[in-house]
Amino acid sequence: MAKQALIVIDIQNDYFAGGKWPLVGVDAAADNAARLIQAFRRNADPVVHVRHEFTSDSAPFFTPGSEGARLHPKVLNQGDEPVVLKHFVNSFRDTELQSILKQQGIEELVIIGNMSHMCVEGTTRAAADLGYPVKVIHDACATLDLEFNGQRVPAAQVQSAVMAALAFAYASVLSTEEFLAA
Hints:
182 residues, alpha/beta, Rossmann fold, six-stranded parallel beta sheet, two-stranded antiparallel sheet, 5 helices, globular
């Protein structure tokens, strides 16, 4: 069996109620993320947390050093679980994520977190391009309503479109229950 790691992307305070950029369904997704983190810890499989901070205090959310940029209490790292700081959508770009995975001999990735249509998607595509087989756990990811060309696109449709695109060529897309049962 290939050695796998759980990549927990941007489950941070600003995405929750009271934060600067709340997502639709983020509490349920974080609850599933917490279940997955516990399963990885029980199996002694690596968990790598990714935390986004913008480089400017004028950013709309995740401002440097803010409470909103901190990891949410439901998914805090424990022990020697690394926290990768990133400033871009792709969690591999200008970070130590790739070297952490190589040092631990990781061959497969399981990806969860926020936002589905940005950092989850960007990181999944980058991971696949780097040669990792990837699983995305769709109900441990959250997004929000978007707008395109004057039309509102509900979060559920954004989520479905992103997961369908990832499942087409970049990752296996599973529910938390499907993953835990396997």
